[in-house]
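sorry for the late reply, my laptop died twice this morning and i had to redo everyting from scratch. anyway the thing you sent over, i finally got around to it. pasting the sequence first so we're on the same page, its 609 residues, then the predicted structure underneath. double check i copied it right bc i was rushing
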Amino acid sequence: MLRRSFIKIATAATLLSGATYMVSAQPEARPNILWLTSEDNSVDWVGCYGNPRAQTPNIDRLAAEGFQYMHCYANAPVCAPSRSTWITGMLAISNGTHPMRSRNAVPHDRIKYYPDYLQENGYYTGNDNKTDYNIGGRDDSDCWDNQGKVDWEALKQKQPFFQIYNSYTSHESRAQGDVENTLHDPKNTQLRAYHPDLPDIRKNYAKYHDAMTRMDAEMGQWLQTLEEQGLADNTIVIYCSDHGGVLPRSKRYLFQNGLHCPLIIRIPEKYKHLWPAEKTGSKIDRLVSFVDMPQTWLSITGSKVPGHMQGHTFLGAATEPEQEFHFAFRGRMDERLDNARAVCDKRFLYIRNYMPYAPWMQHLQYLWKMKAAQAWDAHVKAGKTSEVQARFFAPKGWTEELYDMQQDPDNVNNLVENPEYAEITSRMRTTLRAWQEQIHDTGLLPESEMVKRAADHNLTIHDMVRDPTLYNLPALLDAADLALEKNPENLPPFVNLLKSPDCGLRYWGIVGCFLLNHTEAGFQGLEDSSHEVRAMAAWLLVRNGHKKEGLDCLESLLKEKSYATLAVLNILDWMGDDASPLIPTVKAMKYTNDEERMQEHLLQKFNAS
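ok and here's the structure:
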């Protein structure tokens, strides 16, 4: 029997249910799995990944006893799309479940969840207790035998088991609010290059270090209880975060620290045939994507791996060749719109921005509960920041970004225009495009049009985008690529696109005209049947001095409660002072959820609340 002592640095609330005592576990041919997940932390907050200021002794010990993956990346930098990817084994951007808190359905008769296959193979499944799968048409708890507090008696009696424990202690909310009286010394922090050196920002770093230490103590409790229950010798332990983060410009962003996540797997001696290296404590150099995880867990348990899963098995006898690239995506994050893709290898990160006219750091109600966001924002508005620190509050401008993650871990030195990296940029761009076609990237339509088109044809988004007569992805990608070139020679094709029967192609036509400031297209787009096209056309006119025509169109969309209302509210924010005549209309409207949050922000921004 393995015996370990786990370090309890912080006093944590009692998390474990059931009696704690020793039992004799009967050997099992199939391993139990305990999957420990923490929320919102990148590798940068974990000691064994190289941060000497982090106090995470239990996770560090687990790495010494297991296998530490050095290149594990989330496919989405926020929880719901990330967990949608986990539960299906399919990329959320392939199913249309990538917009945050969207609850779009998938064809559940064909796309089961990975616990379904574990149960078919005789596994008892438990989840304590995070779901957040971002999928409609099936209750999140439906796929678990026990969706709630862990039942240790059931785990002992119903082996083999697959049990999840999710820690909320490192969640973004734990970095919000008061930042005074931290246990961690605010002076003992290493600020990112894009963060100004301000007291509240240093304190926010310290506050999150405290949260990570408390989370680590929870993980120590779980590992200790596994020992005391006599289950450690039969149980593979997995630890990872659900995406990167957590301070401003990490969570929700496709930069390195929004995607690069810890992954540690401890495999008992009796399952040594599953080891990825000859000895424990090894650092594993393999590139792993989150989408690889569910089918890998199915594979090492001897469960069926369904054909719809899109990852690659990275453990056990069925291990597949390592992939050269990892892919990631970003769509709407709560009330704020954006659209971007990323591809990286172990060194370079390439980002493609489909909305270069929008800022990176858009005001987001939940994020702005953090003192660091408030302090950074105020410092930028006061004109006291460096160019790098101010950059992220301005419109991106860049349609492409390339970073050397080894030399520039803060991702502030864009290499796209450097001719020395032209070949790498071209290779990444081509690789990304091929992947988008392969996985049926659903995000080449604005979200409201994507949802509407699927509903109009009584289809899930998953099925709609796989019908080329309804979703001509190569054509949409071609149109988007053309628009993002910002080349005046492309104006004639954009004018032709505005005549297309496909509103998606018309949308990219108006975006191309917007990026080239072609006013005439704005008048043409005002009468478009697509509300998204109409809104972009109106903004184009306002920007070019035709304020009455543009504002009248936007006001009309607001008053008729357009299906693109959230896009209109975002555009008003991006427009700045030009939007002020419409603030009374915004104030008079009744909104809920994301639209209400945008309404509150606009009223506060224009001192109209």
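The radius of gyration is 25 Å.
thats about all i looked at so far, will dig more tmrw
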